[in-house]
Amino acid sequence: MTTLVPSHRLLQSRWLRWLPYLLLLWLLAGCDSHLDSASDYQPQFSLQPASQMQQRTVRVGIHPLHNPALLFERYAPIVERLNTRIPQARFTLEASRNYAEFEEKLAQRQLDIALPNPYQTLQAQRYGYRVFGKMGDDAMFRGVVLVRADSAVHHPQDLRGKAISFPSPTALAATLQPQLALHQQGLPFGSYEARYVGSQESSIMNVVLGHTAAGATWPAPWQSFQHTQPELAAQLRVLLETPSLVNNALVAKDDLPASLLDAVAQILFTLHTDATGQAMLAALPVSRFEPASLQTYAPVQRFLDDYARQIHPLAPEATPPDALEQP
Q1: How far from 315 is each of 119, 178, 216, 302, 319, CA to CA, in Å?
Q2: In sequence order, which residues have a C-beta less than 8 Å from that of residue 78 and are 6 or more positions away?
Q3: In this predicted model, what pLDDT tens digit does every residue of 54-67 receive, in sequence order?
Q4: 96 vs 99: CA distance, rounded Å
Q5: Which three-class secondary structure state does DSSP give residue 62?
Q6: DSSP label of 6
Q7: By CB atoms within 10 Å of each CB, which of 70, 213, 229, 281 scores lowest?
Q8: DSSP-derived pairing of the beta strands 249-253 and 214-217
Q9: What's the count of helices (H) and strands (E) in the chain, helices before strands?
Q10: Domain 55-139+246-310, what architecture?
Q11: β-strand 129-135 against 163-166: which pairing, if any?
């Protein structure tokens, strides 16, 4: 006797029979898709050791003592020594096109360590920088006024009504000191045309080319010019030199770790103790870096006070009136 199976049960039986095979195909398709996406994965590698990947970047800025190319040539070896001997940080050297750009970097706290001039040093206190050292050789920090060797100018008063080139309104040794010295020797500020030409080299070259009757600078760039351009330097002579002041400062931002700053200071303050370091310093030129504090710059504040009384006030005021009070 034959038993008849309903058609819908027959279809269900066949479906159940093929179900395991369908599940297997679905799983294999899923694995293939995963393998395809895995084949797109590209591992990421770093050429830096793990210790360097966590280094702190320390931006080192030098005020425009020279044009950027010459500044890098002279200061890069010192920054490289810092990199070699302080592996927990990466030091980068920055130049600025002019004084205003450098001062803006200080105002915006963009530099971690800087070498400002003494006027900029006092300004930097407002922005959270502290003095920890300075260039040595304070006797070298003075103004020099140059004229052409064939010039009829033999006394500051002979420059009345003529043009005098200066690097910047805030260059202490190369602008403010010469302006006060000229004033005290009978050439009042305003009796000549003050031209601010952007750099030390430009101030000197303006005299060489006859664009100005005189030009102000300070010994470091003047000596450099005599060394690199002896024929042009021979066309100039010194009209006057000013008394000296405290040399350029080393300042650090107040959030720089003390241990890191101590390491930097130790290296800079001992550069003069080995032949390689002495060569680095000779290129600046300076004999050494040495410890200093804000109090070291009290004579600078007194000079600025004299300048404000005799010439014109400097705005903004370099530092609060009580910042440099004697103890």
Answers
A1: 12, 19, 21, 16, 10
A2: 268, 271, 280
A3: 789 999 999 998 88
A4: 7
A5: strand
A6: P
A7: 229
A8: unpaired
A9: 12, 11
A10: 3-Layer(aba) Sandwich (3.40)
A11: unpaired
CA 326 from centre of chain: 30
CATH topology match: 55-139+246-310 vs 144-241: yes
Distances (CA, A) of 126 to 6, 17, 44, 319: 97, 85, 44, 7
pTM passes above 0.90: no
CA pair distance 28, 86, nearest whole angstrom: 56
Q: How far apart (Å, rounded) are the C-alpha atoms in residues 297 and 277?
A: 26
* Domain 144-241, CATH among 3.40.50.970, 3.40.190.10, 1.10.4160.10, 3.40.50.10140: 3.40.190.10
Is residue 300 within 8 Å of 118, Cβ to Cβ?
Answer: yes
pLDDT digits (tens, 9 = 90+) for 182-207: 999 999 999 999 999 989 999 999 99
Residue identified by tokens 């070291």 is 296
CB 228 within 8 A of CB 145: no
* pLDDT per residue as tens digits for the range 153-177: 999 999 999 999 999 999 999 999 9
Domain boundaries, the chain: 55-139+246-310, 144-241
Which long-range contacts (C-beta less than 8 Å, at least 24 apart) are formed by 118-121? 118/172, 118/245, 118/246, 118/247, 118/248, 118/249, 118/297, 118/300, 119/170, 119/172, 119/176, 119/300, 119/304, 119/314, 119/318, 120/63, 120/170, 121/248, 121/249, 121/251, 121/297, 121/300
